[in-house]
Each structure stands twice: as C-alpha cells, then as structure tokens.
C-alpha cells in the first residue's frame, strides 16, 4: 500500500470519521480508522458497531491496499504535520510509514480483515431533506431526548413520514418536542427512531448554508443511511414502543398567553440566578392580566420579575423546572410564542403564534400550596 495526498484534506476527513470510532471496546480494530487505497482515492471508515461514518478523498495511489490505524494517534499526527503533503506506505506486516519533509512516523497497524463490515441499507423511496431544515428540526427536538432512561427507545428521535410531510418527536418523561415540515415526499407512510448521537453527527457534517444542499436518507428495517457533504453515516435504528404522543397533548386550554420569546427567556434566566445544584428549586410563573410574574425562592434568597404579555382566560400560578422551561423557549424560532395552560398541574404547551410547526410540552411541578 502506497499513496500521497494532501495533509489537511486527510486530517479533516480522519477527524470527522473518528467521531464514529469506539473509545471503549474489547475489539482493538474498532479503535482504529480503516484506510483503503484504491484507484485515485482513499476510503476512510470509522465504526463502533452502532454508528459508522465513511468518506473518500482524492489521492495519488501508487499501490492499492488497506490497513487499520489507531484513530487517536493518526489524527494527532496529521494535525501536527505542518507540510501540505504526506507520503504513506504500509508493508505486509502492517507497519505504516508516514513521511512529510523531515518528519517520519512508523506506526503499527492491523490487518484490514479484522475490521467489521458496515451494514448494508436497502431503502425504498428516497427521502431528501434540506440540510438547513434538518439541522433546525433536530435542534428543536434533541433537547427533549432522554439521556438516562430505562427505555432505550427514548434516547432517540422518532421520525414520521407521510405524503408531503416529515415530523420529528422527542420525549424524556418530563417534556416533549414535536417539529414538522412540508417536504417533497410521496412514498409510503413510515416511522422509525434514530439515536440522538447519530443525528448529532449528521448535523455536524451537514454544515452547508446553501439552500440547495440536501441530506439523503435510506431507511432499512434495522439501519438507516444518511448521505451528506461527501460523507455516509450508517446507524442502527432503535426498536421499542414509543409513547403515544398525540394522546399526551392537551386538546383544550383555559388560559392562552402570547408573549415575546426573548423577554420571557431573559426573565426566567434572571430569576434562576439564585437556583444552583445545591439549592434546587422551582421557577414559579403567574399568568395574570397583561403580564407574567416570574419568581423563585431558595435558601440563597428570592428573585422576582415581571414581563408584559397578552393573557386570555383564567389566572394560573404554576411551577416549572427552570431548565426544562428554558430549553423549550430557546428552541423556539419565533419572536413571539403562544403558551396554552389548563390549570396548575396540567401539561403546558409552547407553540408558535400561528400554526403548529413546533409543539413543546413541559410538565409542571406541583407547588406546595397546591398540594
């Protein structure tokens, strides 16, 4: 195996592929990047048996071949080489020699046949989503994904595809986030659950602001394939029974509030300054005529604030975990939000002023006076 290529190009590709490399495994090959030199390109793969990232770059290949090299070591070497070109050779003993100017490294690799094969995904009707759209949809739902849950299915985001529409749903037992968009999809109705880690990596690689940049999805029975910006991301899908989220959304409300999003965020942040990990407490919001009063009380002291708002319906005094409320408000992409309440102990909905492009549900925390 022998090739020459651009250092920066290889370094960037290795850094991106490394994100799918396992850091804790009993299989040494999974701690490495699989490098395959063929024709006029290098094919690079990282895989931890749950998610795999694959890409290719141009190279001057003199001898075809393949090898596995430790990902951390390889990425550090490439990152610190100051020259624009590297020369790479590997012999039958899997000893890799990397040269660049006066710099020379000799690194022991592993035989490529020790590397597991990435799952093949045979999708049906192709699903194409704009990069900017997918980034925004994931950003507006991933905050509600469970991080420590006995049901693994809640550590992912559920996709629902129907003709002309895509919907993403995340839930962790305390809040729920739903985001929908119109897309050019005419295939059969589909639902599947993608691990949040996979979607985080897809979003990082889908970094184009071009309106014509897209992500292609191929959905199989147990795996999903994303193609974007020259990278292929393969991931297992999560299996299990997902919450019937439609039944969890209140259908009526006794109080409707329209309020400036930024003003409410600032107010909750101000009143949260006296809340720490040691002084865990609630933020209490009182939705009254033409304003929302926000306050918190901890062993450190008290904080009070008030924000103007349009309030229709009954007066409501309700408690929230400040982080859950802030996460929902920060995920809003509108200047104003509509908040729907149905008493002090019912779930609260955060919606856009018009329509339902996003729906955020936050469970309140019972105030002592309501016990």
Task: Briefly characterize the structure.
The chain is built from 7 helices and 26 strands. The chain is an alpha+beta fold and 371 residues long. It has 3 domains: 2-114, DNA Polymerase III, subunit A, domain 2 (DNA Polymerase III, Chain A, domain 2, Roll), CATH 3.10.150; 127-245, DNA Polymerase III, subunit A, domain 2 (DNA Polymerase III, Chain A, domain 2, Roll); 249-370, Proliferating Cell Nuclear Antigen (Box), CATH 3.70.10.10.
Show the helix and strand layout.
Elements: E1 2-6, H1 7-18, E2 32-38, E3 41-47, E4 51-58, E5 60-63, E6 65-70, H2 71-80, E7 85-90, E8 95-100, E9 103-108, E10 127-130, H3 131-139, E11 156-162, E12 165-171, E13 175-182, E14 190-195, H4 196-205, E15 214-219, E16 223-228, E17 231-236, H5 245-248, E18 255-260, H6 261-271, E19 283-288, E20 291-298, E21 301-308, E22 310-313, E23 316-320, H7 322-330, E24 336-341, E25 348-351, E26 358-362
Helix pairs in contact: 1-2, 6-7
Given the helix and strand composition, which structural class is it? Answer: alpha+beta
User: Within the CATH hierarchy, at the fold level, what is the topology of the largest domain?
Assistant: Proliferating Cell Nuclear Antigen
Please identify the oligomeric state.
Answer: single chain
Q: What is the CA–CA distance across the termini?
A: 72 Å
Instruction: Tell me the CATH architecture of the largest domain.
Output: Box
Indicate the proportion of strand residues: 35-45%
Radius of gyration: 25 Å
- The figure for the number of domains is 3
The number of helices is 7
Just give the CATH class of the largest domain: Alpha Beta
Largest sheet strand order: 14-11-12-13-26-25-24-18-22
Provide mean pLDDT, rounded: 94
Based on DSSP secondary structure assignment, what is the total number of beta strands? 26
Q: Choose one word for the global shape.
A: elongated
* Biggest beta-sheet profile: 9 strands, antiparallel
Helix content: 10-25%
């Amino acid at each position: 195996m022998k090739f020459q290529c651009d250092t920066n190009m290889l370094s960037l590709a290795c850094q991106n592929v490394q994100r799918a490399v396992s850091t804790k495994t009993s299989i040494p090959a999974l701690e490495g990047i699989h490098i395959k030199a063929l024709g006029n390109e290098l094919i690079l793969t990282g895989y931890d048996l749950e998610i795999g990232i694959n890409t290719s770059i141009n190279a001057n290949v003199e001898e075809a071949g393949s090898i596995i090299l430790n990902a951390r070591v390889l990425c550090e070497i490439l990152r610190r080489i100051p020259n624009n070109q590297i020369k790479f050779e590997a012999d039958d003993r899997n000893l890799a020699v990397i040269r660049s100017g006066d710099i020379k490294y000799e690194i022991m690799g592993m035989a490529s046949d020790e590397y597991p094969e990435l799952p093949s995904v045979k999708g049906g009707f192709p699903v194409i989503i704009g990069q900017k759209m997918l980034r925004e949809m994931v950003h507006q739902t991933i905050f509600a994904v469970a991080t420590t849950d006995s049901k693994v299915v809640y550590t992912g985001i559920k996709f629902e595809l129907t003709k002309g529409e895509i919907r993403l749903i995340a839930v962790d037992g305390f809040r729920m986030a739903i985001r929908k968009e119109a897309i050019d999809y005419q295939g059969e109705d589909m639902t599947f659950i993608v691990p949040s880690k996979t979607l985080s990596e897809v979003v990082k690689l889908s970094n184009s602001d071009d309106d014509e940049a897209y992500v292609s999805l191929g959905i199989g029975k147990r795996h999903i394939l994303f193609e974007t910006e020259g990278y292929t991301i393969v991931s297992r899908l999560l299996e299990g029974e997902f919450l019937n989220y439609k039944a969890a959304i209140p259908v009526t409300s006794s109080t409707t509030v329209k309020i400036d999003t930024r003003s409410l965020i600032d107010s909750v942040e101000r009143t949260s300054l006296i809340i720490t990990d040691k002084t865990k407490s609630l933020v209490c919001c009182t939705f009254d005529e033409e304003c929302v009063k926000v306050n918190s009380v901890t062993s450190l002291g008290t904080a009070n604030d008030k924000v103007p708002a349009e309030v229709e319906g009954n007066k409501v005094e309700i408690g929230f975990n400040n982080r859950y409320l802030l996460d929902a408000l920060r995920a809003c992409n509108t200047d104003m939000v509509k908040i729907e309440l149905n008493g002090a102990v019912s779930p609260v909905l955060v919606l856009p002023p018009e329509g339902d492009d996003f729906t955020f549900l936050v469970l309140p925390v019972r105030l002592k006076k309501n016990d």
